[in-house]
Give the backbone structure.
Amino acid sequence: MKTSIISEKILKGGCLIEPSDEKSIFQLSKQKLVNIFEEKGLIIFRNFNLDKLKITKFTDIFTTKYANDALRRSVRLKNNKVRDVDPGKLEMPLHSEASYSPSWPEIIWFYCNLAPKNSGQTTVCDGQSIYKNLNASEKKFFLENQILYDLKIPYGEEIFKNKNSKNKLKPWHIDHPGVKDCFINFSKKEIVFKLKRYAINKLNYTDKLAFVNHLQIILNRDPQVLNITMENGKKVPPKIMKKVKKVSDDLTVDINWKNHDLCMIDNRRFMHGRREINSSEKRDIMVIQTLKSNLRDKINTNKTT
């Protein structure tokens, strides 16, 4: 395989992988890919002409358990593991997928079925780089203060058919640290609760810290998130958020898609988003979410087959 860096804005550069002698993506060494991913956190596989029907055959190699994606996203390829990205053409601010949720995916995969030509780039930003570029007082603020996410999560398709159901909330619980004020509505098939989580995350396999969260999203773009505050109910100070936005904007990298690209993102280290899509532009990106990876499991074979 041939490797090259994606951008200097990413610590260790990220990694673009293209074939050399390989005829298939499945001929790549799993051990080598794991080593690259743990160091760089972002891999783009290009020019392997990966058949869309075989995407999950590849992601299965690195996955112990898949996340349940948001029900608002349509299933693709008759495979519940594969979904559409969020519809529409609006810009999507940087975020770590479901970082407000007890089910926070470890890896996010994007497959490009149809690449846009002039707009709609997927954006990525290295949370390690963001943390490195915050000053001491800003780091101290986020290390001391948890973020409180106010959530309403549907757990069945019927939620979209019963919007007028009576509001019958019953006390509930979720086995996850930081969950509070949890209730379930059996009529509407939704759970409402609050989740406390730090905006800075310690990576599983290093001592490094990364700024990864949902602080920059626009609330009406993700209907599961009703509100975002600090634990005391106050908003993050505007001065700090202004600095976060400037730092992350300066470090954001655009992925200029090519057909059949597959992107592997460490969702606990990187945030991602989307540039606005031109009204006449066609774009087809699919997403897969690895809730729990097997990167640290013993590797018994040298190939990904």
Remarks:
- Residues 158-163 have pLDDT under 50 and may be disordered.
- The first strand starts at residue 2 and ends at 4.
- The chain has five helices and 20 strands.
- The CA atoms of residues 119 and 280 lie 10 Å apart.
